[in-house]
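User: Hi! I'm working on a homework problem where we have to compare a predicted structure to a textbook description. Could you give me the structure for the chain below?
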Amino acid sequence: MDTGADVDDGSFAAYLDPMVIRSARQIYETYYSVHPELTEPPLGVAINRVTHRGKLIFTRKPALLPQECFIPFDLIQSTAY
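Assistant: Happy to help. Predicted structure tokens:
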């Protein structure tokens, strides 16, 4: 249930499966390799925690299905290196 409060990315990352974060990073890297003209970074990736399928989100945080989570781009970028 969304309380409307923003979650600090530092504390949020502790609750995420590292494999989900890696999958989100792979989705971003694949998209970027196909669309190198991408100039605006996405807000993040909406990803299914079970299947690890997801998509980049550019406009606003999405309404998520029960098995989905939102990985902010800052988290994807900070764990890439």
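For your comparison, note the following. The helical segments are 9-13, 18-34, 73-78. The beta strands are 44-48, 54-57, 68-72. Good luck with the assignment!
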